[in-house]
Specification:
Amino acid/polyamine transporter I, two-stranded antiparallel ribbon, mainly alpha
């Protein structure tokens, strides 16, 4: 026991020494172990939230065979996780992608990575918290007979604000509480994915395993339940269907955002990233396969899509199990939002500590009692609330500006949700490119996790995957295209452009890079300025 305590104390001392070598003093509470760090990353990734939100679109565009597309983003992101793991081990600092890019390329480049990533995180919290409203109203209907309309603006606002406030309070009270919520969320994810798959199997599958290799002819417009026309080519359908798992497999990088609260971060954070991604892939594949096998024996895709997707399949289960499942889904959404908010607040704190945001002095303050960036959390909550309000504006007719058409009856938050994914992929791509630039400059990782001779090939594969998938996510192809189910024509690129322009305006007026440049300090290697001397 004494030996274990001594080893933990040595690890903490080493963590703080590494932080000091990067020019920062310890301010946050280093209380998270490997499982807690993994839990935050895993619940942000959240197979439950992703599958229960996207199953209908996945099966409607790709048929049962879309389940095998799960492994494409998992495989691609494994390479990304290895690159991030090496960077996280060398730079075990709150702020993750921002810090990696800032130190690898320079303050201006790092600032823009953090800008895109931060906005995407805030949008994600708003999307997750509004996304749970229909499940909350269904549970309240079952328990109390309250007939609340999940599409009513007041209902959405009240439920979302309550969830947001609870998440904020829990995150304020400390990293240990955030970790505990995430750890319980992992158990919920296990029950809600593998557990439900077992329940469906016991209740009885309607298809054999061979069904998972069929398309049920969804590539033909005559038999596609969404009325989508892929010209009879399943390859074209797969390019769209793969976006269902693509929208799930990120969030593992949040393990790096809480590095300053993780014990032995240089070793544990890279492990947590890989574990969250791989176990997320396994859980997602098992649940997706079980849901597919549990679809009706006749016209399986058509009946499932028209019935509402997952809710239609689970409607076969006894009512008691349905209430339990609603509870699990609600907590999965809640835990996911809590983890994303926690990661985002650490990014904001890291940004503000470098002077990279307006009001940085206020945003960078840490509660002496809870050892959490309280003001960063409060600031993020306010911005998230403003994003939630964008759920309400929805034009009653198409709005055309030049070659861009914003479709009728589409609320603004839906448009932003696509940036929650494209913004993440853009910031990921920029960070991996930063790693390539650092290697070309002669950077040598000194953390506990190193890629060694595999550094170049792994980073190149990660770059190619992210670039190709980012194009697939944002590619505009018309409102009548099957792609419109994931990407509203040019609107996704328009939102990206607006976020970039707003960031550029502040960047060139406020010049935050000048203050950020004062925080480039790494005793293990020369900074960019020192290289030029």
């Amino acid at each position: 026991m004494a030996n274990e305590v001594g080893q933990e104390a040595a690890a903490l001392s080493e963590d703080d020494a590494r932080l000091a070598s990067l020019g920062y003093r310890p301010q946050l509470n280093r209380v998270l172990g490997l499982f807690a760090n993994f839990s935050v990353a895993f619940t942000y990734l959240s197979p439950m939230v992703g599958i229960y939100s996207l199953f209908l679109l996945g099966v409607g565009t790709g048929g049962p065979a879309y389940v095998w597309l799960t492994w494409l983003p998992v495989a691609g992101m494994v390479f990304v996780a290895m690159v991030f793991g090496e960077l996280a081990s060398h730079y075990p600092v709150a702020g993750a992608l921002y810090q990696y890019s800032k130190n690898s390329v320079g303050p201006g480049y790092g600032w823009f990575v953090g800008w895109f990533y931060g906005i995407a995180l805030l949008v994600t919290v708003a999307a997750v918290d509004t996304g749970v409203v229909s499940y909350v109203t269904a549970l309240l209907q079952n328990w109390f007979g309250w007939n609340l309309d999940p599409t009513n603006h007041l209902t959405i606002l009240v439920i979302t604000v309550i969830l947001l406030l609870i998440q904020t309070v829990l995150n304020i009270t400390g990293a240990r509480v955030m970790g505990r919520v995430a750890q319980f969320g992992v158990y919920v994810e296990i029950v809600g994915t593998i557990g439900i798959a077992i329940v469906l199997a016991i209740h009885g599958f309607h298809h054999s395993l061979g069904f998972l290799f069929t398309t049920q002819n969804v590539q033909h417009v005559a038999s596609n339940p969404l009325g989508l026309n892929f010209g009879g080519n399943w390859g074209s359908a797969a390019l769209i269907a793969v976006l269902a798992p693509v929208y799930i497999f990120y969030g593992f990088e949040s393990a790096g955002d809480i590095s300053e609260e993780t014990k032995d971060a240089g070793r544990q954070v890279p492990r947590a990233m890989r574990y969250a991604l791989l176990w997320g892939g396994v859980a997602s594949f098992i649940l997706t396969a079980a849901l597919l096998l549990a679809m009706p024996a006749t016209d399986p895709v058509g009946k499932t899509v028209k019935g509402g997707g997952v809710t239609y399949i689970l409607g076969q289960l006894p009512s008691g199990l349905q209430d339990l499942l609603l509870l699990l889904i609600i907590f999965a959404f809640f835990s996911c939002g809590t983890s994303v908010q926690g990661a985002g607040s650490r990014l904001a704190f890291s940004y503000a500590r470098d002077g990279a945001l307006p009001g940085s002095g206020w945003m960078s303050k840490v509660s002496p009692r809870f050892k959490t960036p309280v003001n960063a959390l409060l600031g993020g909550t306010i911005v998230t609330f403003l994003f939630v309000l964008l759920e309400f504006p929805s034009p009653t007719h198409n709005i055309t500006i030049g070659f861009i058409t914003y479709p009728a009856n589409t609320n603004v938050l839906v448009s932003l949700v696509s940036f929650g994914v494209s913004g993440i992929y853009l910031s990921f791509l920029m960070t991996v490119i930063a790693s390539l630039i650092a290697r070309a400059r002669g950077w040598r990782p000194e953390g506990r996790y190193k890629l060694g001779r595999w550094g170049w090939p792994v980073t190149i594969v990660a770059t190619v995957y992210l670039a190709l998938m980012l194009v697939n996510v944002v590619l505009p192809s018309g409102l009548s295209s099957p792609r419109a189910y994931f990407n509203i024509d040019w609107v996704t690129l328009l939102v990206m452009a607006i976020v970039a322009i707003v960031g550029a305006i502040y960047f060139f007026i406020g010049r935050p890079d000048r203050l950020v440049g004062r925080h480039l300090h790494d005793e293990l290697e020369p900074t960019g300025a020192e290289r030029g001397r």
